[in-house]
Amino acid sequence: MGKPKIILDDFAEMLNFDSDAATESAPIPVQGGLQEMDFDQMESFPNHKFKLYEGQRLHDMAESIRQMGILLPLIIWHTDDNRFVILSGHNRRNAAKLAGLTKSPVIIKEHLTMEEAVLIVTETNLHQRSFADMSHSERAYCLAQHYDALKSQGKRNDLLSEIEQLLNPDRITENETLSESQTKSRTDEKVGKDYGLSRDKVAKYIRLAKLIPSILSKVDKNEIGFIAAYEISFIEDREIQQMIVDFLDSDGLKVDTKKAELLREYFERGKLTDTMVLQILSGEKSQKPKSNKPQPVKVKPTVISKYFKSGESQKEIEGIIEQALELFFRIQTAETDQSVDFEEVI
Fold first, then answer.
1. Which of 248, 241, 216 is nearest to 142 (CA)?
2. What are the E-state strand segments in the chain?
3. Residue 257 phi, psi dihedral angles, 5° rounding
4. Does CATH place domain 8-186 in 3.90.180.10?
5. Most buried residue, 68, 77, 197, 253, by CB count within 10 Å?
6. In this predicted model, which residue has the larger pLDDT, 339 or 58?
7. Is 196 left (phi over 0), alpha (psi -120 to 50) or beta?
8. Domain residue ranges of the chain, discontinuous segments joined by +
9. What is the DSSP letter of 297?
């Protein structure tokens, strides 16, 4: 059977747009439940994590819009304080302005939390852009947000469904509900499968999202390797992460995977001072920190055969050795305390 027909009216219905809710300061509704909004009324999403098109790619999009117009409406968040923030369409807005347009068709979303708004930004970028074209920092941000959404799927599955249908309305068959499609495709293991990544690679990207922006920027520029950055992500003290960046920038130092592993190990043992960071990055310190724990000791078979019978189990042997050690250390303690009666100790 053919794919279900999607018309523009469906966009307004699926996003629950209520034209009666428009105020004097809001755009005037137009045919199909969509609205038109001047670019001057729109704001970029704060701390937008995705790199915007530049150069030839931006000009190509502008030329396409000049010839065919804006085919996919921008998604705009009407905030509680009456601002209009772009959730999806930053590149379309920029290209359209370059093409000489002053307004665009939009779909308004209201009553969102910041968490829900971030999810829309992330999901729409994942659907509209090639994952292979994304930088490491963009992939980390996307996958971390995607993963967080999946962990609380019961809470946000309806929002994910809206985005899925908005961007890919022709992917749902007539015999499959949108909810069923989401449940099948948004599983823990499918996060990686959807983007051609192993579960291990997905986990590493999610860890990278814990890094401060200045470290992620160096990863994007290939100044820090992916695996080295992964190791540094376990240093969950942002001040120390910034210290690493400062040393790299000011002293022209480099960090490879081995140095990153040392940084992580010293941090996890509580020994990563600013001096130690500099020593590791400069190569002066190249050895792992010594453990405070006693090293495991194996008892020679000749000793076991000398003091134990062949029929005794390992558990029995370990119990006797433990008792012998307790007695030994009691005697050691008694020898340093003259008030102790040695006969009582023994």
1. 216
2. 35-38, 42-43, 74-78, 84-88, 103-110
3. -65, -40
4. no
5. 77
6. 58
7. left
8. 8-186, 210-282, 303-345
9. -
Q: What is the pLDDT of residues 232-283, one digit of tens each?
A: 999 999 999 999 999 999 888 999 999 999 999 999 999 999 999 999 999 9
Residue 236 carries which side chain, given as an amino acid letter? E
In DSSP notation, 78-139 reads E-TTS-EEEEE-HHHHHHHHHTT--EEEEEEEES--HHHHHHHHHHHHHHHS-GGGS-HHHH
Helix (H, G, I), strand (E, B) or coil at 273: coil
DSSP-assigned beta bridge partners for residue 74? 106
**Separation CA 22–CA 308 (nearest Å):** 89
- Helix or strand run (H / E) with residue 31: none
CA 269 to chain centre: 25
| DSSP conformation class of 338 | T
CA distance 241 to 318: 45
Check if the beta carbon of residue 206 is closer than 8 Å to that of residue 145.
no
User: DSSP string spanning 135-155?
Assistant: -HHHHHHHHHHHHHHHHTHHH
Kindly list the strands in the beta sheet with 103-110, ordered across the sheet, starting from the edge strand earlier in the chain.
35-38, 103-110, 74-78, 84-88, 42-43
Strands (E), 205-300: none
CB-based contact 32:106 (threshold 8 Å)? no
**Tokens 């300061």 correspond to what residue?**
25
Pairing of strands 74-78, 35-38: unpaired
pTM: 0.54
Q: Which residues are within 8 A (CB) of 335 and not within 5 positions of it... i.e. 6 or more apart?
A: none
Tens digits of residue pLDDT in 152-184: 655 555 555 555 554 444 443 433 333 343 443
Distance (Å, rounded) from C-alpha 199 to C-alpha 191? 8
Give the DSSP letter of residue 33.
Answer: G
Report the chain's mean pLDDT, rounded to a whole number.
76
Give pLDDT tens digits for 80-129: 999 999 999 999 999 999 999 999 999 998 888 887 888 888 878 777 76
Contacts of 125 (CB under 8 A, 6+ apart): 50, 88, 138, 142
